[in-house]
Amino acid sequence: MAVSVSIFAATAAVMICAILFFPQIRIGKFKFSVFWVVSLLGAILVLCFSKPDFYELWRSLTADTAVNPLKILALFISMTVLSIFLDEAGFFRLLACLVLKRARTGQKKLFLLLYITVSVLTVFTSNDIIILSFTPFICYFCKNARIDPVPYLAAEFVAANTWSMALVIGNPTNIYLTSAEGMDFLTYLKYSALPTLFAGALSAGLLFLIFRKKLATPLSGEAAEAVAEDKLSMWFGIVHLAVCTVLLAVSAYAGLQMWLIALCAAASLILCSGVICLVRRQKPVNILHCFKRAPWQLIPFVLSMSVMIAVMGQKGATAALGRFLGGGGLAFLKYGVSSFLASNVINNIPMSVLFAAAIESSGAGTGAMLATVIGSNLGACFTPIGALAGIMFGSILSEQGIKFGYRRFLKLGFAVAVPALFAALGGLWISLYCF
Fold this sequence. Notes:
The chain has helices at 2-21, 34-49, 54-62, 69-88, 91-102, 107-124, 127-145, 150-162, 172-181, 185-210, 231-249, 251-254, 258-280, 285-293, 298-315, 317-325, 331-346, 348-362, 366-378, 388-400, 406-434; strands at residues 24-27, 30-33. 76% of the residues lie in helices and 2% in strands.
């Protein structure tokens, strides 16, 4: 057990250093994110030195269950492709422009409208895609309007990583943890609605108080024209996303697997877009960009972390973690706080894989799983290494020449993410009591 745990801890430490100091490496014309390379090397070292049962390891990774990492990756990447397609068709930019046009009376209204828009979109798409889509636009608008972009960037990031708790599809960690527990779409929503509402409302209020002086500055400059770049493709994307979301909601009652629904929706959208391009005699630019922007690096990352945690499970490490955290009436509180902190040590995706195994071994149950979901989402708002969204966020701001360093991120995390965590756990306690 000591060998596998030591390699896992060293991998996590090197991965964090890589994220903070050299997030990408370039080989020729190609750039690679370092975090998944580090995790892959860690998995190779675990396999070489921990002497695992390879047959049992293969069974755990390929089992015909909802927690199969390949199914989870198919679900998340497919949902991400649907969101990227909408972004390529100009949907998110159109909404952003409409919001900015309606907020010409002042920054306070703009701040509120932006927070609401990001929150609603995150619920039905993905926090990562919203951050990728809205961050450059916010930077552009604030520069044009000659206002400080920090309040809006903070509002966007916090809203995206708070309201992503609402539905199973909002975050890959939600997908993994609910799959491990065997919880369906609507049952999860029943428990997640109140914690998300509590955390979201408190976060909005705290952000407004923190930035109220900056938001008193009047707006200047003109908002960009609200024009859809490709209306037909945009509506195809909206319909596919809506139908996919409805089918995911009823999947447990219809006997359908969520990963298969999402995969079919993404494949159907790509096919329809291809037909549109053929009719128009155009190059399939949207399709090519979807494949280029899809988070393929998650595949080696998630599989590598799954391998390391499966080996640690064979050696008894995850059972030891489960015994340490324990069960009982306050298990949800212990799992919520510890998952929040652990997300900022090993990132929220490997944390979710580790805690799912610990919950299963300890029998801590539904409350612990839901609290871990809360910790995995809100943990992203505490430091920039809490989630992949934070890494992408920092990279975009660096390209835009905007300083939003670790210290500022941590200060905001203490002021907003920590109170939001306990508000969400309070909402979860009420939900568990009522249902």
